Amino acid sequence: MSARDEACVFRCALDDTYFVAVTGTVELKQFRGKQGKAAYDERNAARQLALPPWELLRCPSCVELCSNQSYEAWLRDCDRETARTPLSPCFAVSFEEGEPPPMFVDRKNKPGGKPKYELASGVGPGGLEIDGSYSGRIWKPSLKLVGIDRPRYEQQQQPGTQRSAEEHAAMQSAAETALCRLAPPEAEALARKLEAACPAYATWAAASGGVGAVVDKAVARVQAEAEACDEAKAREGERLAAVEKANRKARKEKKRAAKLKGQEQ
Ligand SMILES: [Zn+2]
User: Fold this and answer.
1) Cα–Cα nearest to 21, from 40, 6, 1
2) Is 246 part of a structural domain of the chain?
3) Protein residues near ligand 1, an ion, with CB under 5 A
4) Residue 201: inside a domain, yes or no?
5) Phi, then psi, of 19 in degrees rounded to 5
6) Alpha-carbon distance 54 to 187, whole Å?
């Protein structure tokens, strides 16, 4: 084993899933000895601070909820050319207020084996317990030690309000569309709203101002803007065509005038 995966814990705002996402790799042998250790710590601290607060990531639970398949089956069966990978708003997790999200390094010694994430930098659990879904999802009860003790959102936990995969896919896709296409400050504000409503799937259509209405409004607006932009492009195309036509006519007339002048002489 040479380069090792580095990772951070992310939390999906839609379903309150905690999972590990690889953020880079590191050659640990480059950081040997006292000086090496200091350089490693400095490098890691800088990387912790450089991490964006939220990102659109492939959340394993969203994949499962939207496809109605286990993550493993989805990976195996999905047609990589055509399958849509749901990307959900996920927040880098800090386990202590005011501290940047900690970084972990995969210390497994067998290639292809189950990852063995250990804390490399920052404040957080010493290790992470990954569940058996081959997705990097953290076994949530193991996070009780760090004060996270709510079960994650699952369809069957909402008796009487069970939703289909299509319904989850519609919510997920609306959130993704809005976050991809809004201007960065607006996307940031919307992501924060989804985070505050986490798990947003559960609070989507809440009677007292569900977050779904906010997302749908944003989607309608970006779509209207895209249509207006297409119309403006079409109008500009027409204008340029008219200019070109007029130019052609002018060139022709100039030529004809020059020809007549030549005949007169
Ligand atoms: Zn999710």
Assistant:
1) 6
2) no
3) 12, 14-15, 59, 61-62, 88
4) no
5) -145, 165
6) 10
Report how far residue 101's alpha carbon sits from residue 81's, in angstroms, rounded to the nearest whole number: 34
Expressed in angstroms and rounded, the spacing between residue 24 Cα and the centre of ligand 1 is 22
The pTM (predicted TM-score) of the whole model is 0.84
Q: What are the tokens at 238?
A: 């027409």
Q: Is residue 172 part of a domain?
A: no
Gyration radius of the chain over CA positions: 27
d(Cα 135, Cα 154) in Å, to the nearest integer? 16
Residues pairing with 106 in the sheet: 117
Domain tally, the chain: 1
**The domain containing residue 159 runs over which residues?**
3-165
* Whole-angstrom distance, CA of residue 10 vs CA of residue 254: 69
Whether pLDDT at 57 is above 80: yes
- Give distance in angstroms: CA of 66 to centre of ligand 1: 9
Classify 249 as helix, strand or coil: helix
Question: Residue with structure tokens 């906010």?
Answer: 214
pLDDT by residue (tens digit) across 224-237?
999 999 999 999 99
